[in-house]
Specification:
The structure is a single chain. Strands 1-2-4-3-5-16-6-15 form an 8-stranded mixed β-sheet, with helices on both faces. The chain folds into 2 domains: 279 residues, 3-Layer(aba) Sandwich (Aminopeptidase); 110 residues, Alpha-Beta Plaits, CATH 3.30.70.360. Helices cover 35% and strands 25% of the residues. It is elongated. By secondary structure, it is an alpha/beta fold.
């Protein structure tokens, strides 16, 4: 494995200038979730150019590439790169700035796809040196429900050949380029959308006996839910229930008949998740009924929580330590944000890790989902090499 690891490093260095061009092309031409038509066509063209077997058109724009080593049926490892961008107007003044106004790769999916493509090129060159198959997916629609990963799973990406382990990376400007972060077990939260309509009786504000003020009823519901589910990510089952939107549409002297409150619920336990759904409905309907009003509760289930398998994650972490040095590999804290790779992590042993992409000296510090997000492009060489090396290591174990 030592010789193969050296070859992977050399291949990553060889392909690095080409991969920078790929990333810049993708960054310049971003497309929104499930609309990645040109992105998919471009990636397919690169795979054809390098004679890599693949199937396009999965969930319309998704791609699955196969790198078959010796004895290809022995084991299969999946690598994931997502492709979609965000509805953000880019403020970076760079030569590869987005030309699609109001759309930007502000979450680094251009980097993810580039690293996955880089890993494909490296592994394709070295396929006579390992046993098993590496399946590389280029996934649409990570940013919006129901999540492209869930749809690709329904179309069979975890079968034919059956996937034994999965790896994905994500850009992280909190770490410098040349660094990486890992966490065993629970890592990222499930995410659900909560919509509550409180319907009561409105009226003239000066005549309180003629209305029951759904604004106050909605307030009672919010306070009761906050008391029942205090936001705490440090407990055995981290939980966040937060409401960010209230719409009443009344006036200074008009009490509306309906109030809408929208929020998010996040946790890291699927049983508890279902229980909380029922409790939210029960609390809201009970309080409304006590005030001669009605509460209509709609809960849209999103991504499950993301869990990193201990064996797979330790293997991937050791690869990173060997490649980057122990001083550049970090333990990650829990995050209550969500990621649709969780669908895959719930099905097969998986590792989702963070690729350092920041550079404080160059001022590359903006977080994801901001109009000034950017990366130190040296991270692309690291990401491609790590994905390739992790996949080969998992096949060998």
């Amino acid at each position: 494995m030592a010789d193969l690891a050296t070859e992977i490093k050399q291949k990553a260095k060889h392909y690095f200038p080409y991969l920078v061009d790929v990333r810049r092309h993708l960054h310049t031409n971003p497309e929104l979730s499930f609309k990645e038509v040109e992105t998919s066509r471009y990636i397919s063209t690169q795979l054809i150019k390098h004679r890599i077997e693949h199937e396009a058109g999965i969930v319309n724009t998704g791609i699955v590439a196969l790198i078959k080593g010796k004895n290809p049926n022995k084991k299969c490892v999946l690598l994931r790169g997502d492709m979609d961008a965000l509805p953000i107007l880019e403020k970076n003044e760079v030569s590869y700035k987005s030309v699609n106004e109001g759309i930007m790769h502000a979450c680094g999916h251009d980097v993810h796809s580039t690293c996955a493509l880089g890993a494909a090129l490296i592994l394709n060159d070295l396929k006579d040196n390992f046993e098993g198959t590496i399946k590389i997916i280029f996934q649409p629609g990570e940013e919006v429900l129901p999540g492209g990963a869930s749809l690709m799973i329904k179309e069979g990406i975890l079968q034919n050949p059956k996937v034994d382990a999965a790896i994905a990376l994500h850009v992280f400007t909190d770490l410098e380029a040349g660094q990486a972060g890992f966490r065993n077990g629970m890592y990222m939260a499930s995410t659900d959308e909560i919509y509550i309509d409180v319907i009561g009786k409105g009226g003239h504000a000066a005549m309180p006996k003629e209305y029951n003020n759904p604004i106050l009823i909605a307030s009672e519901i919010l306070l009761a839910l906050a008391k029942e589910f205090p936001n705490d990510a440090s407990t055995d089952i981290p939980t966040v229930l937060a409401f960010g939107k209230i719409v009443a549409n009344g006036a200074t002297n008009v009490i509306p008949e309906k109030v809408s409150i929208d929020g998010t619920f996040r946790t890291m336990n699927e049983t508890w998740r279902k229980q909380v759904h029922e409790k939210i409905k029960a609390i809201a309907t009970k309080i409304a009924a006590e005030k001669n009003a009605k509460a209509e509760v709609k809960i849209v289930s999103g991504y499950p929580f993301l869990v990193n398998d201990e064996t797979i994650t330790n293997s991937a972490k050791n690869v990173a330590i060997n490649y980057l040095g122990k001083e550049n590999v970090f333990e990650l804290p829990l995050r209550m944000t969500a990621e649709d790779f969780a669908f895959i992590s719930q099905q097969v042993p998986a590792c989702f890790f963070r690729l350092g992409t920041g550079n404080k000296k160059q001022g590359i510090t903006s977080g994801v989902h901001t109009a000034t997000f950017n990366i130190d492009e040296n991270a692309i060489e690291t990401g491609a090499a790590l994905l390739a090396a992790m996949a080969v290591q998992l096949l060998a174990e």
